[in-house]
Design a protein that fits this description.
The complex is a heterodimer of chains A (about 110) and B (about 550). Chain A is about 65% helix and about 0% strand. The longest helix of chain A is centred in the first third of the chain and has 30 residues. With about 110 residues, chain A is mainly alpha-helical. Chain B has 8 helices and 42 strands. In chain B, a hairpin with a 3-residue loop joins strand 36 and strand 37. Chain B is globular, with a radius of gyration of 24 Å. Classes of the chains: A mainly alpha (about 110), B mainly beta (about 550). The interface between A and B is large, with 30 and 45 residues.
Amino acid sequence: MPSLFSVSAPATLFQIWFTVYLYLLPFLLYATWASLALMDLSERSGDPARVAWGAFVLLVPLLGGAWYLLGAAQTIKRSARIAIVLTGLVVWLLPLAAGVWLAGGPLGPKALS
Amino acid sequence: MIAQHVNKRVIAALCVAAGLCGCGKPQQNPTGTVLVSMADNSFSPAIVRVPVGGSILFMNTGRNDHNVTAVDKSWSSEKTFGNIKMNPGDMTEIVLGKQGVYPFYCSFHATPDGKAGMVGVAVVGDVQYTPPSGTRGILATVEQPTGVTRRVPQDYPTIQNGVDAANPGDLVLIDKGEYNEAVYVTTPSVTLRGVDRNAVILDGKFELGTGIMVGGNGVVIENMTARNYTLNGFFWTAVQGFRGSYLTAYNNGDYGIYAFGSTDGLFEHSLASGSPDSAFYVGQCAPCRVVLNDVVGSYSGLGYSGTNSSGEMYVLNSRFVHNRSGIATTTFDIELEPPGRDTTIVGNVVSDSGLDNEAAGFYATETLAGTGIAMVGTHNNHVEHNLVMRSRNNGILMLPILDRHYWPSTGHVVRHNTVLGSGRADLAAGGLGTIGNCFSENVYRTSLPWGLEALNGCRGLRVPIASDLSTTMTFFGAIAQVRTGQFTVNDYRTRPVPAAQPNLPGGADAPVRPAVHVFAGIRLDLDSIKTPAESTAALNPVPAVARKEQ
């Protein structure tokens, strides 16, 4: 098996940050938001839009689940839905922005000794 | 300092613009100041005209250290900047108060006569100046040796004396001994030969820059060793026709054996070790028409590196072992001729990349550390019949690069390689635009993304899912590490000393062959090159005797 979730050596904090946190967290967010959305949809028996919403949530990663939770979910308290989506975005996007800032600039001079 | 008052990005943009507009004719600014970009490794514009009392603002827009000195020593960046090295981004203003024509050069990357390498000319005041047409100098290459042998130290006390006395086609034969020289060669078609590869030693004592720097076409260097230079062991710059045979270069501060802006050449039967950048480097050429055959690159940041080596570049039958990374083809906008492309890498052993932490290195090599063969922002390489073993991270890796432009890694053919024992993935591809590559009949165990070869064969099925986000993220993580200084590199001065190496067959009496029409004279039979025999043992780690007993 390829070591899909392994970091490059040496396994420094930056490798863990980029490879584990920034790479894997979107998958966890997708799973979390989609699960909550599907749980909500399961309560909406008889709703003709249920299948379409389910497909949207599953086939449009992240955006589908977030969209449904923020705008169409019915059985979860509104404040909870907003907290779930916004907290997820913050804990992903802030470290991502910091990572882009760290990894996106020039490397510096080639210092010969 | 001026540097404190000028926005560097604006200056850099102006420098680029000046370079683009100034090709082929003197760049003139009658009001006083002209911008000159110090790229890797050329001045742009190379010919500038300023009024008496005007100035030139030199800015290092490359990735290497540079400097500028007038050939007549009347001015230099060392005087105005305060240091012989100008790091990337540094700039200095030089005021020219006397009318005249001032050839200038970078002492790291050109001959001090201003004839070869990273050179330029400042025309000050209202004086006539006609740039030389055609090739540099007045001496032409010759295809046949003259039969004249100039012996060092019997006839000439130093190698430089012997070289200066030589005519095209002569042999400079160097006797056993240690020579503490930095030699410059601008006479074409000269052959420099040691009588014993292991006993003719140029030693820079960690004070001199480059062992032998060549700026003349058709020059051959063979059967000697260069060690302990702060820059390079052997260096050909801006030449057509070159050959390095039976050379050893170790523990030099930048590159071991190095050709820049040079075409039609061959490095063969040579060893380079302990360089922070590359053991062997061929850069900025299109088409290169350069072959590396039967060389060893070890204990360096990169075993072989080719930046913008673009077309007809061959790395064959060689060993790249115990480096931070084994082989890297890269693209950078800071050098001419991007993107790097059409490098053929066949029949090599690449092992222990980034594994034992014994190699020299510098920041850039750390971003790829632990990679066997890396193709970063390059196009259309052929990687076939190589044995890539024990890479700390990835065996064969493709990544894009963002410089001034975004360069995807695309069009590569990876076939018939044996890639084993990689810490992360044997075959890996990351980043946007890493598509159009194909993989067939490789022996490997892991790939990222999964199914890379099954879904991107060189025949039949090919899907556009050919890149993996986790690989991209590991690269970003490595860059972040480097940018924050979270890495350590070994001192090149203390890397392992290589064992004695084979001598040139025939030694001092071997035929003299000036390096003319080198590439045309090489018989390239790529189909006859097989995966190195060690791959059989690597695939079957159980000893044959033990298997019989089972």
